[in-house]
Amino acid sequence: MSSVADQMARGRLNPERVPISYVDPAKRISSWEEYYQLYTKEEAIAEAQRCVRCAKPWCTLACPILQDARGYVIQISEGDFEGAVDTILKDNMLASCLGKVCYSYCEDACVVGKKGEPVAIRHLKWAALAYGDGEAQSYRRQEKREGSIAVIGAGPAGLAAAQHLAEHGCRVTVFEASHKLGGLVTQTIPTYRLSAETFEEDMKRMEPLGIEYRLGVNVGTDVTLEELRDGYSAVFVGIGTHKAGVLNLPGKDLPRVYIALDFLKRVMDGERPEVGKRVATIGGGDVAIDCSRTVLRMGCEESIVLYRRTREEMPAANEEIEDALSEGVDIRFLVSPLELQGEDCVEAVVCQQMELGEPDSSGRRRPVPIEGETTVVPVDALIVAIGQKADLETFPGLGLELARDGSLVADPETGRTKIEGIWAGGGPSIVHAHAAGTKAAKDIIGYLEAKQKVTTKVSRR
Ligand SMILES: Cc1cc2nc3c(=O)[nH]c(=O)nc-3n(C[C@H](O)[C@H](O)[C@H](O)COP(=O)(O)OP(=O)(O)OC[C@H]3O[C@@H](n4cnc5c(N)ncnc54)[C@H](O)[C@@H]3O)c2cc1C
Ligand code: SF4
Q1: What is the average per-residue pLDDT within 204-231?
Q2: What is the per-residue pLDDT for 456?
Q3: DSSP string covering 238-270
Q4: Top-level CATH class of 4-137?
Q5: What is the pLDDT of residue 339?
Q6: Strand 243-244 relative to strand 234-237: parallel, antiparallel, unpaired?
Q7: What does the pLDDT look like over 145-188, one tens digit per residue?
Q8: Separation of 156 CA from ligand 1 center, angstroms?
Q9: Each residue's pLDDT tens digit, 244-299
Q10: Which of 305, 336, 297 is nearest to 321 (CA)?
Q11: Where in the chain is the domain with CATH 3.50.50.60?
Q12: I want to staple 77 with a disulfide (CB 3.0 to 4.6 A). Which of 48, 72, 142, 266 is the partner?
């Protein structure tokens, strides 16, 4: 294996990606279909051949689930798509989804990216699954083992925990408040980025595991956490972050002021909330960008994002920002809403003009108001996308706590909470949530085995 510098010197390293095709922005804004297009087999092989086969697999090490990216990229470069699928599915039970919408931390770490564009690892995962998963593979349950586990929440964290535990042979029951599997992935990620069919591909592989799904069961109201803890050997809590941050501004209760997650959930359920022709979204994360692009597909003519810092500080993924800009979304920086105005519904957002000051605790420069400088943005609707946290109101009494990022407090390596028999986990991306669920499942298995050894010893005495 040789270094990037060696490869460059020998003129072998190709800094340019095999281009990824997509539907033209002007066309795709009137469609809810996925707009990125699959590499052909030949394109995938050519792209994978850009990998310089690093001795230290930076791509793999950057991945929260340590997906063997180097391994499957090399297999694709040799035309071995079936082998690549085996490699991918070994660590990744949401591979089809992640082949489309992973934030691809592997690509950020890929050394080829230092001299040009990183290897298109995420796109290659999609190609491997498309060309190498002919006899759609599935997960098999190992021999039956002691232990029945309750998983609360069927998002990526809960599903990854359930998959790992069921594959290990445990009986697993998943309690999910909504009527579908997938959590935020199927409840909010717009179908033009991730179709329901893609998610189904991942679920199909899990079918032989015999996991019991109890949909429409809200833990806290339909059954309590205490009851689950008493009735099961272990409980994993993967409830995500569904409680919206509050916008405390005059006018916040006016009609046509929407909360981002509720708005996206309604759209995903087939509703079309009234938005009119000019919509502003407050926020700078992926959720704000998804809202701004969704309203375009609902017929809005002007979609504006209002963000209080600059592009550099925007937490949304760069690819999403670029795609939004190419679709015509107007992102306005250094503006912070002061007041919402309107009679029968919201009609304008009064914004404070900001400038950047000293860095705050997050390391990003703090937005500071410029005295006396305000602007008025006329709107027909407003979407508020300013963050969310876990909803703990349904779990009173047991003492679960919220961390600063809005998730449940749990050991990051094991998922253990301070309450015996209860694990928790989730994360800011699908792959982080997958990692948290898998880590907790491994720890639960260790816990059950240790408990069983003690029981066996006691009964032998
Ligand atoms: C609009 C949007 C776009 C995103 N885009 C991407 C992307 O492109 N790439 C990416 O990697 N990540 C993306 N994310 C983030 C990703 O979806 C989340 O990080 C991930 O889904 C978190 O997984 P989780 O299992 O922790 O929680 P969730 O996915 O939130 O799942 C939690 C589940 O628990 C259920 N639940 C909650 N309370 C209870 C209860 N009391 N009883 C029973 N069930 C309960 C919920 O209904 C839900 O199904 C996006 C998020 C949003 C909102
Ligand atoms: S970091 Fe990039 S070049 Fe190195 S092994 Fe991974 S994909 Fe290949």
Answers
A1: 94
A2: 62
A3: -----EEPP---TTTTSTTEEEHHHHHHHHHTT
A4: mainly alpha
A5: 95
A6: unpaired
A7: 778 999 999 999 999 999 999 999 999 999 999 999 999 999 99
A8: 7
A9: 777 889 999 999 999 999 999 999 999 999 999 999 999 999 999 999 999 999 99
A10: 305
A11: 148-242+390-460, 243-388
A12: 48
Q: Where in the chain is the domain with CATH 1.10.1060.10?
A: 4-137
Task: Rounding to the nearest 10 degrees, give the CA dihedral for residues 418, 424, 425, 426.
Answer: -130
In which residue are the tokens 């937005």 written?
367
CATH 1.10.760.10 fits 243-388, yes or no: no
User: To which residue do tokens 């205490």 refer?
Assistant: 226
Q: Considering the entire predicted model, what is its pTM?
A: 0.94
- Give the side-chain half-sphere CA count within 13 A for 272: 7
Q: Does the Cβ of 120 fall within 6 Å of ligand 2?
A: no
The pocket around ligand 1, CB under 6 angstroms, is made up of 101-103, 152-158, 175-178, 183-185, 188-189, 218-220, 238-240, 242, 261, 264, 286-287, 290, 394, 426-431, 433
- Beta carbons of 76 and 46 less than 8 angstroms apart: no
Q: State yes or no: pLDDT of 1 exceeds 60.
A: no
Separation CA 364–CA 354 (nearest Å): 14
By C-alpha distance, which of 140, 47, 126 is closest to 94?
A: 126
Q: Indicate the pLDDT class of residue 402, thresholds 50, 70 and 90.
A: confident
pLDDT tier for residue 9 given thresholds of 50, 70 and 90? low
Q: Answer whether residue 6 shows pLDDT above 70.
A: no
Mean pLDDT of the chain: 92
Nearest atom, ligand 1, residue 220 CA: 41
Say yes or no: CB of residue 4 within 6 Å of ligand 2.
no
CATH for 148-242+390-460, among 3.50.50.60, 3.40.50.2000, 1.10.3210.10, 3.30.1020.10?
3.50.50.60
pLDDT over 70 percentage in the chain = 94
Ligand with smallest separation from the Cα of 106: 2
Strands 365-378 and 348-359: antiparallel
Give ∠ CA 147-148-153 in degrees, rounded to 5: 140
For the Cβ of 73 lying below 6 angstroms from any atom of ligand 2, the answer is: yes
